[in-house]
Amino acid sequence: MFLRNTHTDYRSALDPRDAEALGREAAAEVERHLSFRDNHAQTPLVALPGLAERLGIGAIHVKDEGHRLGLGSFKALGGAYAVIRLVLEEAGRRLGRAVDIAELSTPEVRAVAQGMTVACATDGNHGRSVAQGAQLVGARAAIFVHSGVSDERVAAIARFGADMVRVEGTYDDSVREAARVAAEKGWTIVSDTSWPGYERIPSLVMQGYTALVREALRDLPEPPTHVFVQAGVGGIAAAVAGHLALEFGPARPVFTVVDPARAACLFESARAGRPVTVAHGEPTVMAMLECYEPSLVAWRILSRVADAFMTVDEADAVAAMRQLADPLSGDPAVVAGESGGVGLAGLMRAAADPAIRAALGLDSRSRVFLINTEGATDPGKYEEIVGLPPAAVAARSGQQIVA
After folding, report:
1. pLDDT at 398
2. What's the Cα-to-Cα distance from 43 to each of 79, 192, 334, rounded to whole Å?
3. What is residue 290's predicted lDDT score, i.e. its pLDDT?
């Protein structure tokens, strides 16, 4: 399914709070924070000229977040960044002065962090980031996971020392339970979704994602004309769309939000003209995007700056994974998890449909930017779908898998 943005706020200016959170100055501060991370390295930008030619477009570039900070996902940029910011702010309140990232390892700041507990709900990747951030600063983490999160993903979070809490139901059920328990125990919720009265911390999480956009803009030979980004609650899509809108203004690229058909909360919100919760049905293979209620902050941004919304089916996501794993001659292989290649799935679906091509203005001059939002964060599931272990696919491009 495909629809153009017809919201009354479409093409209006971002809310000042969102403009401040996602602007160039904020993005520069995120990158400065990253410079203090021991394992920080810029992730690759991969060109796929063979696939671009097959799809009848000018260029495709994929930002490969499967290499980010040892966590294999763009989420590494958000949760840990928010945790660090919150610790520095609390230390500032306790010490009565501004505390800089350069002081993170000092005894005074570590003592503050040790008295803090951060909590969140997760499908897997955000929880890993929050847990890693807590471990870095010496805080405690409690991570809530719903019944659909695999044991492999739970173990990947637990290795950072987090306390794991299983919750019956969906991701949205785990969000509510995490918020309830945190309020009861005085913990700090570090969520990547927002709700009425809870916006600032999710905005910090989204702010962290702007680093990948700044890196990509420096590496791209020309600015993109089109962007397809997958969405769960909408955080990554809103962060990218919002930053690009602020960077390019009226000349910004055409931005399309891609939802799983089985969890299309942003698509249905766009159709309704307001945030809506969709019914929970059959699970989607796009596990990291299986969210049934949009983030209110993300919706506030996307209602203004997204140009279109679309859905992709299970087979589309699998086809994108396999396309990236077994590329056309001359294109490098990319290890993309079940949710990682969904932006590409949207592009492939759009390019094959004359009506969508026309609506988006996709043609032989188009320069498309995509994000591989995750690598093989569940290696067993990846091999089951692709037919090869992630290390074998990575070896085709001379890469190494970092888990």
Report:
1. 66
2. 18, 22, 12
3. 92
Confirm if 9 and 304 have CB atoms less than 8 A apart.
yes
Write down all domains in the chain, each with its CATH number in brackets. Answer: 2-73+203-395 (3.40.50.1100), 79-191 (3.40.50.1100)
Look at residue 403 in the predicted model and tell me its pLDDT: 42
**Matching residue, tokens 């990575």:** 394
Q: Show which residues are catalytic.
A: 75, 123
3-state helix, strand, coil in the chain (%, to 5): 50, 15, 35
d(CA 99, CA 101): 7
Spatial contact of 74 and 288, defined as CB atoms under 8 Å apart:
no
Q: Which letter, b or e, does each residue of 350-388 get, where b requires 16 or more Cβ atoms within 10 Å of its Cβ?
A: bbeeeebbebbebeeebbbbbbbbbbbbbbebbbebbeb
Intervals of the chain under pLDDT 50? 402-403
pTM of this structure:
0.95
DSSP 8-state secondary structure symbol assigned to residue 232:
S
pLDDT tens digits along 125-150: 999 999 999 999 999 999 999 988 98
Sheet holding 117-122, edge to edge: 163-167, 140-146, 117-122, 188-189
